[in-house]
Amino acid sequence: MITLDAMGTFALIVGLLTLTPGLDTALILRTAVIGHRRRAWGVVLGIQSGTLVWGVLTSLGVTALLTASHLAYETLRWAGAAYLVWMGGRLLWATWRHASSESPRTAETGSEVKTRTGAGDTLLGGWRQGFVTNLLNPKMGAFYVAVLPQFIPAGSSRLAPGVLLAGVHILLAVIWACALIAFAHVLRDRLQRPSARRYLDRITGTVIAAFGIQLAVGR
FRET pair for 71, CA 20 to 30 Å: which of 24, 35, 81, 196? Predict the structure, then answer.
């Protein structure tokens, strides 16, 4: 059995990791700020589904093969980098395209913006985005391989303790996501103007693409 001290130490480590601004924070905030609450929760569920998968694979020893195999790690690293750069670039391209096609006569009213924010607000779409983003991040797997085994008692079944520890990580991440979505809800009314929305998307797209580039050039 995992001791309470070990679980508390693990919670502290993953809690600090969760609070560190990163790709997950950018995805959740941007999705919630534009008014897609169902999709934002889908992103949260998708990210945590990926975390659970990493926890199970690490407990079974599968992710150790990933970090031991240079080819497997590099393949996943480049796939993740390409996906993030594509996602960030698509977001940036959409903002420039909308800016060039918008004129004073065609500027959206507040009601039109609220109507448009309902488009694409699906739980499944958000889940898919969060899940793929998490699974294509080899650093997540490397983190679990380095940290998780240290908290699993020797000589015991690895799967149940591994899932329990991953559950602690997921619980803390969901609590933090609740705070992020609540904060985004406060900001939403201030970002109804199309120009403010474009700036938000440009910042988010740049952050996501930067994470992809960092993943590609990092070692």
Answer: 24
Beta strand ranges found along 77-217 (DSSP E): none
Side-chain-facing half-sphere of 155: CA atoms under 13 Å: 0
Which residue type sits at 24?
D
How does pLDDT run along the chain (219 residues), one tens digit per residue? 778 888 999 999 999 989 988 889 989 988 888 878 899 999 999 999 999 999 999 888 887 777 677 777 788 888 888 988 998 888 888 887 766 655 444 444 443 444 344 446 789 999 999 999 999 888 888 888 888 888 887 776 788 899 999 999 999 999 999 999 999 888 777 766 777 778 878 888 888 888 889 888 876
**Residues whose CB is less than 8 angstroms from the CB of residue 192 and which lie 6 or more positions away in sequence, other chains included:** 110, 113, 114
The pTM (predicted TM-score) of the whole model is 0.79
Residue 82, token pair as written in the block: 């390409």
Which amino acid would we find at residue 37?
R
Q: How far apart are CA 169 and CA 163, in angstroms?
A: 10
